[in-house]
Design a protein that fits this description.
111 residues; 10 strands
């Protein structure tokens, strides 16, 4: 059974940083592309960033230059480093391999 467990969310002031982690188990992590989505209240879930198994990355325009996705295959973990956070980044953040989803971690950007 595949499990994806996110951590690292919290409350941060505008301009601050957070690093989210997603630990995977029950899957051959290294062969999976991984992604981070987010969902704000009243809005659809949107793709924030994804990373292919060869390390190639892509980002939503709204986070380009501020967020960085990375992976550590030895630790079966994918990360999302979020810098220069804005109030509009407030959302529940989910990691996925497009077959399985984590439970989400809340990120709140507010002064």
């Amino acid at each position: 059974q595949v499990q994806l467990v996110e951590s690292g969310g919290g409350l941060v002031q505008p301009g601050g940083s957070l690093r989210l982690s997603c630990a995977a188990s029950g899957t051959i992590f290294s062969i999976n592309a991984m992604g981070w989505y987010r969902q704000a209240p009243g809005k659809q879930r949107e793709l924030v960033a994804h990373i292919q198994r060869n390390g190639k990355t892509d980002y939503a325009d709204s986070v380009w230059g501020r967020f960085t996705i990375s992976r550590d295959n030895a630790k079966n973990t994918v990360y999302l480093q979020m810098n220069s956070l804005k109030p509009e980044d407030t959302a529940v953040y989910y990691c996925t391999n497009w077959s399985d989803w984590g439970q989400g971690t809340q990120v709140t950007v507010s002064s």
